[in-house]
């Protein structure tokens, strides 16, 4: 009897000392944002929910501060079949499927609720299929709202004329470049990770960014004025490799898409609830925060839609957003 008990205890000890079983699949997610950004909290929720619901079959790894490289590079890795994903805006996806560019067009919608209706609509799901076919990229969900983009400058701004000659960082997608040009500045594309040092060294004069990102990267240390133009309502998506996604069993594909949608809501509502506090923190750090009449900016950028061929699409999407 004693011998049997010793053998049983030894067996239990052996099992307890074994390493945890490795996940069947691993997904590495890249984001330019910092770990204290509300959107990053949503990514953590996604990681944990996927691990639990898949019973450890999928391990999600998070890489903040663009640790895996610029978003464009990670997208190309995904197209090649790598098990990576990136939080990315529609402007960058427009390189592969032009409809996505309209999501970054100026003054399309305000706040989260309206734009969420757009990116969960049957029309948007048609775009998801087109992107798969044309670029080999799979959208898990596109309801990751980062807030409205504002102007971070060292001189006060009240109208487009105040931006004349200002070299303003913006992503390199056509819709962003045309919007910043129409607003009166000189668009200067560069990776977001380089913005702080570029402002510090005078390579650029200004930047347009949403409050959580700007606060997280300490733009208040290298700019003096925040002007609330709200010119772009930044909705982003979690995008991965279609080839990698297709390699998963159907039930794991379902888990990823469903949990991405839930986590996107977590991130977006967290962003919404944090904005007022972030603004107060910016003021406490010495920034001048200005509420202005955005009508001149709205009028100046109205032609961007037609210039990029989005005129008809704007009407359709605004109708969906207002339902």
Automatic annotation (TrEMBL):
GO CC, alphabetical: outer membrane-bounded periplasmic space
Domain of life: Bacteria
Keywords carried by this UniProt record: Signal
One Pfam family, short name: DctP
Gene Ontology biological process terms in this record: transmembrane transport
InterPro entries: DctP_fam, TRAP_DctP, TRAP_DctP_sf
Bilayer-spanning residue ranges: none
Keyword GTP-binding applies: no
Signal peptide: 1-22
Name of the protein: C4-dicarboxylate TRAP transporter substrate-binding protein
């Amino acid at each position: 009897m004693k011998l049997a008990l010793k053998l049983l205890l030894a067996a239990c000890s052996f099992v307890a000392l074994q390493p945890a079983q490795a996940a069947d699949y691993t997904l590495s997610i890249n984001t330019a944002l910092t770990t204290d950004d509300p959107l990053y909290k949503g990514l953590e929720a996604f990681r944990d929910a996927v691990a639990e619901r898949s019973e450890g079959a999928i391990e999600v790894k998070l890489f903040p501060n663009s640790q895996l490289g610029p978003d464009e590079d990670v997208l190309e890795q995904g197209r090649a079949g790598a098990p990576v994903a990136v939080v990315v805006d529609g402007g960058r996806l427009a390189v592969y499927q032009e409809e996505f560019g309209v999501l970054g067009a100026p003054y399309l919608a305000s706040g989260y609720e309206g734009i969420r209706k757009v990116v969960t609509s049957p029309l948007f799901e048609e775009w998801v299929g087109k992107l798969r076919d044309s670029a080999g990229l799979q959208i898990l969900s596109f309801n990751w709202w980062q807030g409205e983009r504002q102007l971070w400058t060292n001189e006060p701004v009240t109208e487009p004329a105040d931006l004349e000659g200002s070299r303003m960082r913006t992503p390199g997608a056509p819709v962003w470049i045309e919007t910043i040009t129409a607003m009166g500045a000189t668009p200067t594309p560069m990776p977001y990770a380089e913005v702080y040092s570029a402002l510090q060294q005078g390579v650029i004069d200004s930047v347009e960014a949403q409050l959580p990102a700007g606060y997280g990267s300490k733009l208040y240390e290298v700019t003096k004025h925040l002007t609330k133009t709200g010119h772009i309502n930044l909705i982003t998506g979690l995008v991965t490799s279609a080839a990698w996604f297709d390699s998963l069993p159907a039930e794991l594909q379902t888990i990823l898409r469903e949990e991405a949608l839930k986590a996107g809501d977590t991130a977006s509502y967290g962003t919404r609830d944090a904005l007022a506090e972030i603004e107060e923190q910016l003021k406490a750090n010495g920034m001048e925060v200005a509420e202005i009449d955005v009508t001149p900016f709205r009028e100046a950028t109205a032609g961007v839609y037609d210039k990029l061929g989005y005129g008809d699409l704007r009407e359709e999407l605004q109708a969906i957003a207002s339902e």
